[in-house]
């Protein structure tokens, strides 16, 4: 727990976005206008390799109650449906990301971080779920993206030089959570029933591969002078007049 004097010495901001990948389409769950929820969203990376989504609704949370309300509102828009295996089956993958920024009031140093909570829809077998028509199309999309995630995990666990993040929106969206400057924790749900033995074995093999991934997380901290210089560079790139000069001596 943070000591009270440390909290008082720091300005902390928390911003969040909540997205789902449904039938290979990126959907903004915090957009209240249903006609705009499927608007064109682009997955990008900043200079530090952090994923961000242009066009996504960014909500600010000042309290834990704000955060809970935002999450509750987003879940109401998520695609769920009934199958023979699950009365309320998730028909999409969900990504909820918290963007945290703290500024030291004394030194001006700024630290940035990101926490992503990802709920993956489970892989499905059509003969067990009884999926047809739209449910079958959803299942095929889910399985396709999980397969792409498996390819990424395999490449990371064997230290391959090329990681196929761009093969699917799910892996591209999760690319800063799986490799590089990140710490990753994955929970794998399995079934104790004999009927689901094959799925349980597959899930455990999946988990064993994830354990082989080794990341090195480092704190992203910027001093006040670095922030000032970045501001000058951005202004110059935007073609703006800059009155400040940098001493190169």
CATH homologous superfamily label? Kinesin motor domain
Q: CATH topology, anyone?
A: Kinesin
Low-confidence stretches: none
Provide the domain count. Answer: 1
Tally the helices.
Answer: 8
Helices and strands, in order, run as: HEEEEEHEEEEHHHHHEH
DSSP strand tally? 10
Mean pLDDT: 81
Shape: globular
CA-atom Rg in angstroms:
21 Å
Structural category is alpha+beta
What is the architecture at the second tier of CATH? Answer: 3-Layer(aba) Sandwich
Distance between the termini: 44 Å
Largest sheet: 6 strands, antiparallel
- Helical proportion? 25-40%
The CATH top-level class label: Alpha Beta
Strand content: 15-25%
Strand-helix topology:
Blueprint: H1 4-8, E1 10-22, E2 25-28, E3 42-45, E4 51-54, E5 59-60, H2 64-75, E6 80-81, E7 89-90, E8 93-104, E9 110-119, H3 126-129, H4 133-157, H5 169-173, H6 175-178, H7 197-210, E10 220-222, H8 224-237
Antiparallel strand pairs: 1-2, 1-5, 1-8, 3-4, 6-7, 8-9, 9-10
What labels describe this entry?
alpha+beta, 33% helix, 249 residues, single chain
Can you describe this structure?
The chain is α+β, with helices and mostly antiparallel strands and 249 residues long. The chain has a single domain (4-237), classed as Kinesin. 33% of the residues lie in helices and 22% in strands. Strands 1, 2, 5, 8, 9 and 10 form a six-stranded antiparallel β-sheet that branches. Strands 3-4 form a two-stranded antiparallel ribbon. The radius of gyration is 21 Å and the shape is globular. The model has no long low-confidence stretch (mean pLDDT 81).
């Amino acid at each position: 727990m943070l000591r009270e004097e440390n909290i008082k010495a720091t300005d902390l901001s928390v911003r969040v976005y909540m997205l789902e990948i449904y039938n290979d389409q990126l959907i903004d769950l915090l957009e209240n206008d249903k006609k705009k929820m499927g608007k064109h969203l682009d997955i990008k990376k900043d200079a530090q390799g952090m994923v961000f989504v242009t066009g996504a609704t960014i909500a600010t949370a000042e309290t834990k109650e704000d955060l809970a309300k935002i999450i509750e509102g987003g879940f109401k828009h998520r695609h769920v449906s009934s199958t023979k295996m699950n009365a309320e089956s998730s028909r999409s993958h969900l990504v909820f990301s918290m963007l945290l920024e703290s500024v030291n009031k004394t030194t001006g140093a700024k630290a940035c971080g990101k926490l992503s909570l990802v709920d993956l829809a489970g892989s499905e077998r059509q003969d067990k779920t009884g999926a047809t028509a739209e449910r079958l199309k959803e299942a095929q999309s889910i399985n396709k993206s999980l397969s792409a995630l498996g390819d990424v995990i395999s490449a990371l666990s064997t230290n391959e030089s090329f990681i196929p993040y761009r093969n699917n929106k799910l892996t591209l969206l999760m690319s800063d959570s799986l490799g590089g400057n990140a710490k990753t924790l994955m929970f794998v749900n399995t079934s104790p029933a004999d009927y689901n033995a094959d799925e349980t074995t597959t899930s455990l093999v999946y988990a064993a591969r994830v354990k082989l991934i080794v990341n090195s997380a480092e704190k992203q901290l910027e001093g006040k002078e670095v922030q000032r210089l970045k501001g000058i560079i951005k202004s110059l790139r935007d073609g703006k007049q800059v009155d400040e000069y940098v001493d190169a001596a």
